[in-house]
């Protein structure tokens, strides 16, 4: 399943380039501005360094959260029905899709990290940590793409999925530690942040990339559990789409 | 295949009281069918008769209740995976992946059906050649004509060497030459492998020519069943299959008023005279 998605990506690369624009703007405009006015206390770490892993996670979130549209599109095109009549388990189909979404995120992660390095962000040079980044980005994207596919299975239509996707993206993003430390948030937002897998993804990425203190085992655990739960939920609802 | 293990096994499909409703709308309303192994069985009927719904129940896409459908003796409600393994399915919609090449499209289904890795390449080339697409295999499906896409989808359905091929309007929207092309491929593969074919179509000439037996569906029920010649001679000597179709399903035209029906009749008479 995943191989197919990769074959498609090979056929169409323009999408990858255009998708890199938005996170680039975030880094350049938001990052540069807030570095200058020093509005957000990030300790000894320059704000841009602090922000880069957050933008990385954000871009992965944006790719993943609308991934379910592809499932709806496949349903409308009759492709999904054909897939579901094969003996391949639903969970394998969903995992393949989630994995493919992860690879897309990685392609974009490369672009963001190159730009960050150019802007002077002090990124790690340790290859093991880079490997860790790959794993975390894949897991995070897998979870959010499964969330999107689950919503697709409930919403049943492209428009409703778009609506729900847009409604939850901003709370997920701002209700996380991507832009600012959790300590700055009001209590209720902190609570959101604590159950938000994005926070754990950002925490892990920050820890791996720029060496801020983090909770890597906890982050990894949360993301693994979230991804598995996401796959289970999405595969349970996949059949509903073709009824 | 276990041909000798009892009479029940000689049926590819057995439906008993098959029923499905979408909300209040009863789409399939008590269908009984026996499709024998190795035959080409045609499911005919007007738009909305319930043909696609019947097929989606047989292919496990819609939930059937235990006892309603058996495929090769396996209850569809209980043995979904085994049933899926036995079936090659071509949906009513054109559904090849336009972004992939012909070969990638077929290769995908070879993987999804667990065709062993070593045989995979060979199987894919074999079915691509069987549907006459070997030369176009490297091109993306978006450059294919309608007839080529349908043949590509046929290759996708055949790559797992299914014992039962289910085709929902395989020749929809195709020109007469392309239609013949699709049917020739189906017939060739069937002669070579002895697989069973369940097919729906709105083309009476195709059904007449290619189907061993036909069920005429209307309003979710089977209204008539038999070989094309039985159905024709059952109506009146010299009748065409189209006339049989109209005789069993014509009543739907009473609903909106008789204007339509009259127009159709006149056209038919005109056609005969001209
Ligand atoms: N997903 C669905 N939701 C609600 N109603 C449906 C759905 N699918 C089919 N129906 C209804 O069920 C009835 C049977 O539809 P079906 O698609 O089985 O007909 P068909 O014989 O295949 O027709 P056609 O020749 O047009 O393909 C129709 O009245 C249709 O409107
Ligand atoms: Mg139909």
Shape of chain A: globular
The hetero molecules present are: adenosine-5'-triphosphate, magnesium ion
- Total domains of chain A: 1
Rounded mean pLDDT of chain A is: 89
Fraction of residues in helix of chain A? over 70%
Number of helices of chain B: 10
Instruction: Name the CATH superfamily classification of chain B.
Output: P-loop containing nucleotide triphosphate hydrolases
Would you state the CATH class of chain B?
A: Alpha Beta
Structural description of this entry:
The complex is a heterodimer of chains A (about 240) and B (about 270). With about 240 residues, chain A is mostly helical. Chain A has helices at about 1-10, 15-20, 20-35, 45-65, 70-75, 80-85, 90-120, 125-155, 160-175, 185-195, 195-210, 215-240. By secondary structure, chain B is an alpha/beta fold. In chain B, strands 6-7-8-3-9-10 form a six-stranded mixed beta sheet, with helices on both faces. In chain B, α3 (about 100-110) crosses α4, α4 runs antiparallel to α5 and α5 (about 145-160) packs parallel to α6 (about 175-195). Mean pLDDT of chain B is about 90; it is low at about 1-10 and about 250-274. The interface between A and B is medium-sized, with 21 and 29 residues. The structure holds adenosine-5'-triphosphate and magnesium ion. Magnesium ion (MG) binds near residues 51, 52, 92 and 168 of chain B.
């Amino acid at each position: 399943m995943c191989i197919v998605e990769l074959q498609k990506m090979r056929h169409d690369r323009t999408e990858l380039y255009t998708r890199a624009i938005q996170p680039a703007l975030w880094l350049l405009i938001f990052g540069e501005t807030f570095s200058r006015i020093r509005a957000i206390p990030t300790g000894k770490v320059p704000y841009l360094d602090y922000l880069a892993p957050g933008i990385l996670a954000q871009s992965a979130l944006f790719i993943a959260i609308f991934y379910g549209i592809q499932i709806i599109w496949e349903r409308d095109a009759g492709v999904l029905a054909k897939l579901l009549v094969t003996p391949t388990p639903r969970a394998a189909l969903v995992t393949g899709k989630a994995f493919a979404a992860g690879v897309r995120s990685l392609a974009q992660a490369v672009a963001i990290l190159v730009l960050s390095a150019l802007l002077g962000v002090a990124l790690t040079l340790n290859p093991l940590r880079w490997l860790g980044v790959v794993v975390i980005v894949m897991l995070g994207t897998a979870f959010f793409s499964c969330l999107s596919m689950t919503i697709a299975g409930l919403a049943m239509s492209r428009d409703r999925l778009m609506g729900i996707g847009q409604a939850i993206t901003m709370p997920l993003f701002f209700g996380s530690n991507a832009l600012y430390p959790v300590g700055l948030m009001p209590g209720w937002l902190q609570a959101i942040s604590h159950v938000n897998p994005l926070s754990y993804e950002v925490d892990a990425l920050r820890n791996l990339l720029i060496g801020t203190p983090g909770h890597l085992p906890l982050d990894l655990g949360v993301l693994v559990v979230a991804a598995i739960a996401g796959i289970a939920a999405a595969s349970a609802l996949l059949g509903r789409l073709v009824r | 295949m276990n041909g000798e293990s009892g009479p029940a096994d000689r049926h590819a499909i057995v439906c008993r009281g098959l029923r499905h409703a979408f909300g209040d709308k009863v789409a399939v309303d008590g269908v009984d069918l026996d499709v024998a192994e190795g035959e080409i069985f045609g499911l005919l009927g007007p738009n909305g008769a319930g043909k696609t719904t019947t097929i989606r129940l047989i292919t496990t896409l819609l939930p059937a209740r235990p006892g309603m459908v058996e495929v090769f003796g396996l209850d569809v409600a209980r043995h979904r995976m085994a049933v899926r393994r036995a079936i090659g399915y071509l949906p009513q919609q054109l559904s090849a992946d336009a972004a992939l090449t012909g070969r990638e499209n077929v290769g995908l289904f070879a993987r999804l059906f667990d065709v062993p890795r070593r045989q995979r390449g060979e199987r894919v080339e074999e079915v691509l050649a069987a549907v006459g697409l070997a030369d176009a295999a490297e091109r993306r499906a978006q450059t294919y004509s309608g007839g080529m896409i349908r043949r590509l989808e046929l290759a996708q359905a055949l790559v797992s060497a299914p014992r039962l091929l289910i085709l929902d309007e395989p020749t929809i929207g195709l020109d007469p030459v392309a239609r013949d092309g699709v049917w020739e491929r189906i017939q060739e593969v069937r002669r070579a492998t002895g697989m069973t074919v369940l097919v729906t179509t709105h083309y009476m000439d195709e059904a007449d020519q290619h189907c061993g037996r036909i069920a005429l569906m209307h309003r979710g029920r089977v209204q008539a069943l038999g070989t094309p010649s039985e159905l024709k001679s059952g109506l009146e000597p010299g009748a065409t299959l189209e006339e049989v179709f109209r005789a069993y399903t014509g009543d739907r035209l009473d609903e909106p008023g008789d204007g339509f029906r009259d127009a159709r009749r006149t056209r038919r008479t005109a056609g005969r005279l001209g």
